[in-house]
Every structure is written in structure tokens, then in C-alpha cells.
Amino acid sequence: MTTVHACRACRDGGDLDFAFTMAFQPILDLAAGKVWGYEALVRGPEGQGAAAILDRVTDETRYRFDQAARVKAIELAGRLFPRDGSERLSINFMPNAVYEPNACIRASLEAARRVGFSHDRIMFEFTENERFRDTEHVRKIVAAYRRQGFLTALDDFGAGFAGLSLLANFRPDLIKIDMDLLRGIDGDAGRRAIVSGLVAIARALDVSVLAEGVETAAECQTLRGLGIELFQGYHFAKPLLEALPAVAGLPVARAPALVA
To answer: Which residue of 181, 214, 228, 251 pairs with 158 in a disulfide if CB–CB is 3.0 to 4.6 A?
Structure first.
């Protein structure tokens, strides 16, 4: 797709030929004992996995889908999150689908204003698993989003392409260490050494660290011992379709009931 076509698709929008919605999974700040935020995860209308939806996204529709997914997540957050809360909304985005950062963010800003959701509670995640066509362009996207007041995160850190190089070039607010690097870390000295090193690097760069995909109490305890405070995974809660899951021992953020 040419840049001209990309600009037109991102600007003009248009209907997709498939439906989708979002599930929400909590991100926990265990040091503070509270829900830090929720990640919006693409799902089918009946809860089908993300792959069933993403397989339908083509080069011709990726720009419209990226915009539509952001807006859907923000609209649902406006309905589900408490207006006066501090919980963040984390949204995945496709850097290769952003032709010009300030122009492509307009729909997200308009959706946030429309539903009364403060944009400084929004975090955009880009994944190390996506091979970027132009790393300088992605650096500009991250810089532009941070100027707008959004948080940025590097997802699946340690699983994809040139992770440390991306961290050095983009300096996101947060990195999410990939679940495969964390799996069974309580019984693996090598994994503990690697993660400990990543935590030290992130701390030196003033970048927060989140452990994603945590599945056991032993993994959680080990990661806390390595200095990680933010957590996400099935050990705490599975994603819930168009709703905020409960986490044992922690209050669930709830929006006030709408008055008819």
C-alpha cells in the first residue's frame, strides 16, 4: 500500500467487513496492592481469540482496523472504568499502520473526549515481535505520543527482534517482559540472572518493568524478589469480555451506573 493510500484510509476510516470487540485483563501493582490498569485485548463478538480476528486484517484494512481497535477500547473503557479513577487503559497498536503520528492519533483523542476518559490514563503498547519497516518512524511515533501525554510500552520484551536496541532507541515508559522468558523462573537460575539484568537496565533508564503471563505463585514470588512490582497473567485473572475481571483480595474498578 502506498503512503497516499495509507493516509486516506487512516483519515477517512470506513467500515470493516468483520466485527470485533475487546476483553480486559488487569495489570496489578503488587507493591501498592491495587489494580494499576487493564489491557484491552482484541476478541471476536462471541469471545473468539485474537488470531481469528487478526487473520482477517489485510494490508488494505490494517490502517482502518488499527484506528477502529483503539476507538473500541477507549469507548468500552469510558463505560466500564470509573470516571474519577486512576486505572490506566493499555491498548496495542500497529506501528507499521501509523503513517503520521499526530494525524493518526486524532480519532483516539476524539474518542477519549467523547466518553470523558482522560487521555493521560491511556498507554499504547507496541510489540517487539513486529518487525518494523522503519525504526526511525517508530521512534517518532513514541516521541509524539509521549508529547501528547500518553504512556508507551514495549510489549513481549525479550521475545522478538533486537530488544535492547529497541529499548535504547525508543525509551518507552514501560517494558513488558515476555512470558516465555518468565516461565518457570523460580526453578531456573539462568532466567533469574537474565531478568535481574533487565530490571537493572530498565531502572538505570527510568523505565518501569511489568511481568506478563505470570501463571504461578512461585513465579510471582520470584519476580517480586527481583524487584518487579507490576504483574499481569492468569495467576491473577483471565481476560473478561467487555467487563473488568475480579482479582482476589483487590477491589474491582467500577463505573457508576448510568441513570436512565
So the answer is: 181
Q: Which is nearest to 152 in space by CA: 121, 133, 132, 126?
A: 126
What total of structural domains would you count in the chain? 1
What's at 213, amino acid-wise?
G
Q: Cell numbers of 150, please?
A: 500518553
Residues 183, 91, 219: CA angle, nearest 5 degrees:
15
Please answer whether residues 78 and 110 qualify as being in contact, where contact means their C-beta atoms are separated by less than 8 angstroms.
no
Identify the pLDDT of residue 99. 56
SS3 content of the chain, % helix, strand, coil (to 5): 40, 20, 40
Amino acid letter for position 59: D
Half-sphere exposure in the Cβ direction for 109 (13 Å, CA) = 10
pTM of the predicted protein model: 0.87
CATH number for the domain harbouring residue 198: 3.20.20.450
Q: Residue with C-alpha cell 467487513?
A: 17
Within-domain flag for 260: no
In sequence order, what are the residues at sequence separation of 6 or more whose Cβ sits closer than 8 angstroms to the Cβ of residue 110? none
Q: What cell numbers appear for 11 in the block?
A: 483519515
Provide the pLDDT for residue 162.
52
Task: Give the domain extent around 166.
Answer: 3-241
CB-based burial of residue 119 (10 Å sphere; 0-12 exposed, 13-18 middle, 19+ buried)?
middle
